[in-house]
Amino acid sequence: MNFKSLSFGLSLLLAVASASAQIASHAPTLKPAPAPAASDVDPLIATSKPVAQVNGTVLTEADLVREEYAIFPYARQHNGLPKELEPEIRQGAMRMMVFEELVYQEALRRKMTVSAARMQQAETGFRKTFANPEDYNAFMQSEFHGSQKLLDDKIRRSLLIDQLLRIEIESKSAVTPVEVRAYYDRNPDRFKVPESFIFQTLSAIAPDHATPDQMNAARARAEKELPAARAAKTNNDFGLLAEKVSDDDYRVMEGQHQSTPADQLPPQVLQALRSMKVGGVSNVVQVGQVFTILRLNQHTPAGKEKFEDVRVKLARNLQQKKTNDLRAALDERLRRGAHIEEP
Predict the structure, then answer these.
(1) What residues are paired with 283 via a beta bridge?
(2) Collapsing DSSP states into helix, strand and coil, what is residue 2?
(3) pLDDT given for residue 173 in this prediction
(4) Cβ atoms < 10 Å from Cβ of 37
(5) Smallest Cα–Cα separation from 244: which of 228, 267, 266, 220?
(6) Cα–Cα distance for residue pair 260/28, rounded to 1 Å
(7) Whole-model pTM above 0.85?
(8) Tell me, what CATH number does 290's domain have?
(9) Is residue 78 assigned to a domain?
(10) Which run of H or E residues covers position 287?
(11) pLDDT band at 34 (very low <50, low <70, confident <90, very high)
């Protein structure tokens, strides 16, 4: 798993109260289940088997499983992780878990603190994630043996990690409009738009290894539908006809093909589409044993995306990249002076 692409969330069980208190790229990773009765807790969560040490602090199998479930939140519904993905998820979870512990220890080294008001706000928000007091109490018993102190420690740890990441990542990851424009101007090739088409098909298909008579029969079936296809006034009208009589798999989508680059189309189809106006219907076009009628719904010539059209998405992508780079650099820096034991 690419470390830079990971979403580093907190591996505790908390939902910090207000959205303003969370960093979008660092929200808590695992909220409690809607009804976290003791019987619902995965047996793996309950184990305290050591799996790593970070500067002498032991991290357990329970911590690791929470991280795994944060990466693959559907694990509970599917009775665990998909076997084919389990090694990769586990490796990523281990990396996340160690990173969070390093961040927490760095926050302690800097003598960072959490105010009583912020603690109260976080605890209140956490309680609100439960449907009722009974669910909350059951969760407290299964995860913290009913200890308010253990819960407070988890909350404080979460908030300290959050604070440090705000300082080291969020506050440094902003991208200015000038930077966005400069990136756009420096990388023109990334914003090239290939010629593409959105179209519909209505097809008659001869069988594999068709005889000449079978080929002629398939063409005749397509020719028979051509007047009705040309009479269709809208793509919906054409689609209903295709759904009714077409042999190709696109009939279940009313013959609709999503935007397709020109270089991915058979030459016969490309030639026909280039000769048409939007809303036009072709003659029968043969591609192998397929005899198809085309309706052109959109033609996008080759060109370049306008800055205003890509500005918002580009800014978001550049900020995400900067966030990932800062996070990876922080991880590398913290690991450099740490003593980490992993299996």
Answers:
(1) none
(2) coil
(3) 95
(4) 14
(5) 228
(6) 39
(7) no
(8) 3.10.50.40
(9) yes
(10) strand 285-287
(11) very low
